[in-house]
Here is the input.
Amino acid sequence: MNVRPRLIEEIATPMTTPPLLEQPAWIALAAHRDNMKSRHLRELFDEDPTRGLRYHRRAVGLYFDFSKNLITDETLSLFAQLVRDLKVEQRRDAMFAGEHINVSEDRAVLHVALRMPKDRTLDVDGVDVVAQVHHVLERMTTFANQVRGGQWRGHTGKPIKNVVNVGIGGSDLGPVMAYEALRHFSMRDLTFRFVSNVDATDFVEAVRDLDAEETLFIISSKTFGTLETLTNATSARHWLVEHLGDDTAVAQHFVAVSTNAEKVAAFGIDVANMFEFWDWVGGRYSMESAIGLSTMIAIGPENFYEMLAGFHAMDEHFKSAPFEENLPMLLGLLAVWNHDFLGFPTVGVMPYEQYLHRLPAYLQQLTMESNGKHVTRSGERVAYETGPIYWGEPGTNGQHSFYQLIHQGTTTVPVDFIGFANSLNPLDDHHDILMSNIFAQAQALAFGKTEEELRSEGADERTVPHRLMEGNRPSNVILATELSPRLLGSLIALYEHSVFVQGVIWDIDSFDQWGVELGKQLAVTIIPELTSDAPTKLAHDSSTNALITYYRSLKENGRGDGDF
Ligand code: G6Q
Here is the structure.
């Protein structure tokens, strides 16, 4: 397939007319919402005893139950109409074809190419990106096998035992989440650490018990210009050279993952030890690119390829399944419905699987960095809510803390529960206890507990209002056989594409991140002002001036007697 990159104007304009709020399906959904607001999930389940069966879909190893949402067949058919009218499928196809759908950066968005099988081709701007991807995968495979097999030796000839990924944001959250998620499949005699925060404590604690002779640093940075990562990478180099007493040791102990060979070389890493990726891979969509090198070393190339196959299976499903059967489309539309129409500001993601304990943090970036936008693709202020806040914790820990608010607070939090039929560590009856909690929580959220039920249970009359659970709180349940590399890939791709669908509905650019870029610039201007020999005349607002002055005074005198 040969694709001419479309001009920004070509992409940004045609599908924004009429604007979202004037779309007939959107208007119809608003009217429908007014009816649905007076309905209760209890009634909807009573009216249709097959509801729990009708509103579930199975695909790519996942069972997706969305019956406990405040929806009917009419809602679903309006969703389908909205998807049709907004040409969501055409936009999806444009992404898969490598068109420049990241309009504000004028880039293709091709994480789907990272998991295409080797026999595919996808020419973008005259280059077969699938061939590029597989070339790097093969280099990663060779390297991962060398580290795992003990052939890659450190400067003093010892095999590598510790792998430290240094990166931040998209160059950290994917690797750490995937390592934790797939730890069961990892090579246990290797130790993995992840350093992201520029707070020195992160680095110091990560390496304090490591032997430099056996430690490999993977410096992961798409731009190789991120201050936090370069600061940590520089400290890593100092640490290594100090322990091994030789500058040339860097060659055996540092590899880079980046799109920027020049900067990698300038840092002092041989580009022969650089694993490449491309500007068409967004940071938060990069865990299966070379950014996943630590993952491949941990779980081995075979499992890594399995993970890619899981991603790809969901890509194929997203690309070909009709709306009514399409998991990412349904998940995305339900998120829009809950957020824009029912007014629920957040989504809780609760994996009932300990290995997925970093999944909420990962999804937080994926969803909020992608869809936390206030203008349309053509730059107009949106007149509706975009990206909801995603947050979460693994079950059942959350149940003993914030679930109180989820059950009885004044804010409704739609929840995605994620669970598995089998534990990777079966032990007595732990797993059934764990899973009974998903089913019970989703049930309690939907159906609540009425005054009558409480009284019939003999509740003290004074406690009835306190114990009352109104219910009618939506949730999805995602169930699979067991956590595996393949399943993880499919699960992540499900959320990626659901985020994409939401972004298309809101007509925003889900693939830029100007808010994050701003943070990168702001701190840089202040850094020189924090040192004692910096000029004392500060030109910020009065609060920032006072804070900097007080900080300097505390730092220099050990007490806060600054003269402001
Ligand atoms: C992700 C973001 C952001 C990025 C980090 C690290 O989509 O762009 O989280 O991944 O800022 O950037 P580098 O990989 O360039 O160091």
